[in-house]
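Good morning C.,

I know you're traveling, so I'll keep this short. The sequence:
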Amino acid sequence: MVRITKSCPAPESLRLEAQKKHGSYSKPDVVARLKEDFHDKCYICEMKGLQDPQIEHLLPHENGRYADRKFDWENLFWACGHCNRVKNRGKYKEGILNCCQRDPEEAMTFYLKKEDIEVRPRKTDDREAVLTSELIEDVFNLKNTGMRVAGSAVRVRLLQEEMNVLYTKLEAYRRNPESKLLLKMLRVLLRRDSAFAGFKRCYVREHAEQYPALQEYLE
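The tokens, ready to paste straight into the viewer:
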């Protein structure tokens, strides 16, 4: 999870649809803006190029019970079906960190250790960070149904592949630190719009002594 800057003002259709009895929050203008703002990445797992994108409410509207939440532009997020289903568990209905208002990288650390994904709050008394860390771990590790086993496995595999690309480029850069091409490649890999950026940026940040010149790419 990384910080997202949401465009303004809100799509016009949200105002119009909110006035209808059965209005929709997924009109084309909303879909297009969310896809662009979130770099076509699920805001939770950071998988890119979603085949099953969904508009997710950070705070649930409970089937329209909370109408103000249903059409609130600030409450609409771009997510994959897998993560949306995991987040629908009761414990995650309230209190998840809003990555459009708060930088997740300042609140949590992200680790890939072989096939294990660990997300840790930087402060154990930070309720938002604790709950969000648990959610992100669940979307990668939860295996309580057959479909979640498959969904989690896909995300772990893609994360491993993306991290291996990073490791390979970092090793090449270590051997040839003057290479402008490698620096350009690493800068792209470490941008917030890249797949699984939270994990890649955390790795480079936590190895700052080895890669001091790359720290500016994390700003």
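Safe travels,
E.
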